[in-house]
Amino acid sequence: MIVLKNNEFIERNKATIDMEDRGHQFGDGVYEVVRVYDGEVFLMQDHLDRLQYSLDEVEIKYDVKEQNLSSLLEQLIKKNKVHDGGIYLQITRGVAPRNHPYPKNAKPMLFAYPLELSRPLQAQANGIKTILQKDFRWLRCDIKSLNLLGNVMTKQKANNANAGEAIFYRDDNHVTEGSSTNVFIIKNGKLYTHPADNYILNGITRRYILFLAHKLNIPYKEKVFGLTELKEADEVFMTSTSAEVTPVVEVEGDKIANGQPGPISQQLLEAFFQYNHVEQLT
Ligand code: PLP
Q1: E strands, 63-146, where?
Q2: Do residues 88 and 224 both lie within one domain?
Q3: What average pLDDT does this structure show over 36-53?
Q4: How far is the CA of 108 from the centre of ligand 1 (A)?
Q5: What 3-state DSSP class applies to 177?
Q6: Within-domain flag for 279
Q7: Does 281 fall in a domain?
Q8: Which residues form a coiled coil (predicted)?
Q9: How far apart are CA 111 and CA 7, in angstroms?
Q10: Over the chain, what is the mean pLDDT?
Q11: pTM (2 d.p.)
Q12: Phi/psi at 3 (nearest 5 deg)?
């Protein structure tokens, strides 16, 4: 495997991280996961814009455009002959003696490498079970930060319950998102998802689904909904770069409608590949 370290391509076994890298010690860094279909990054510019947003919010001085990151990622894909899969990339604040405040002279450290991702066809055909989890994460979920302990603990809880995902809620009237996905509900033909604010990550797939809903004339609204609306929805589905659109057929033991993936989720999943040559969402 060839790994991108800053702007150099190196072998996997040379891709080591310093003990005092702040990403390693503080989770002081941000990341992206992009999907590669047919050798091309899907919605590259949207991912790079979100990466720049996360970098700016935490004041890591790395300019995605100046560093020509999109071209570096294209080279990484070619060097690794990625046809269908993904790329993980992270940028940390760099290496400095351990101390909480931002160090003056640390240089941002980028690593990127291919991920094996295959389409979740079975989960998409059958739908998945989910559990609920009180959202105990911080209040800047809009930043795609390396600090994923709350998400990791929650995904493990879902695994232990033989569920495919856990859905977070701040209180009974406020469902936020999944542990690594955004959540949508459909009621009476209308699509609802949480507004893009500090309580959720503004998923690129979430935004793509809103774009598809617009194209397909499916009415939609970005609005907070609660646990009752979730459980009484006609359809529920989750979205992410790796899950694409995956229907949810059960929430904490309660079946959604008849317990089968619903028609609008299906329609959106089919449309997913009709429009996937769109260059950019914004
Ligand atoms: N929400 C969280 C907490 C995530 O970790 C992710 C993806 O990793 C998403 C939502 C979906 O984002 P995207 O569609 O950009 O993959």
Answers
A1: 85-92, 109-115, 128-134
A2: no
A3: 96
A4: 23
A5: strand
A6: no
A7: no
A8: 48-75
A9: 9
A10: 97
A11: 0.97
A12: -115, 140
